């Protein structure tokens, strides 16, 4: 077990990376934890509680871009989606199409359906379209770099959503911009919420997908928090491909319940979709599954919102503003088509729980910031 002082220092460093700033601003740096004068035991949970509270605030103020190029007319955009069965991918694709309609563009959607062959086929089909620009949704830009280089050779601008482990402008990549919240902050807030909810006594299983860099980064960040909690227990990390979650999660859930019983009281996942298929197994398990809390480090699917609202196992999701990010992807593409740089804008972390689900579109099953982003982008585009 770690000493109280070591735990305090670790959690203050982690929390400093997770504090929720005003919409889109950079988080402030943490002061030296050695200077802390508060009671050690209280400070541990208090620091995490502050981070979680700030991540739970309504998003009513805009601090993103307010100027940029007018709409480049008549563009055709290819949307290359990792798997439209994933609620996050689907939500972003819908946002792109909504924004494309507003700016006056045509779109064509290609669905890779979560397989390597599907990715190659979707990218090849998109390239054959000879689009003015292309948007990747959930496709790993690092793994797919050889397939994406022909876009750069033809000077077809590329932007993406969740295409790498770091949010913002991308260097040494055919993809100019990775639109996302900071995935490490997303993961840390998810794990901190579990620590807070459990009173620092969480018995945790983490579900991840080793096929994606962003999933690996999220997992490492969650483990960092759980391992820093002296009275928490990391029971297991289970690697289940998102594309196979429907087939594998029921049996995996049954296996974990049999192995850990009531010691397993928190499940963390890199995506809500795991819980779509774990929840029926937990319901069938009756008393054995009762008391298990599910928290997801993305992306805020409609099913996750329903579970949170109904109090059915899931107690939190760190939701992406999916529709807004679709609009941002269109804006970043428009800037590239106008031969201007991307904004590098990164939206902040937002934790959805039963306590705040009635804000920012939650009752409609999504996190849709009430900050006027549609009108702002229309104004920038002069549409």
From TrEMBL:
Domain Periplasmic binding protein: 78-339
Residue stretches in coiled coil: none
Organism, as annotated: Paraburkholderia rhynchosiae
Signal peptide feature range: 1-24
Pfam families to which the protein is assigned, alphabetical: Peripla_BP_4
Protein name: Sugar ABC transporter substrate-binding protein
Top-level lineage group: Bacteria
Keywords noted in UniProt: Signal
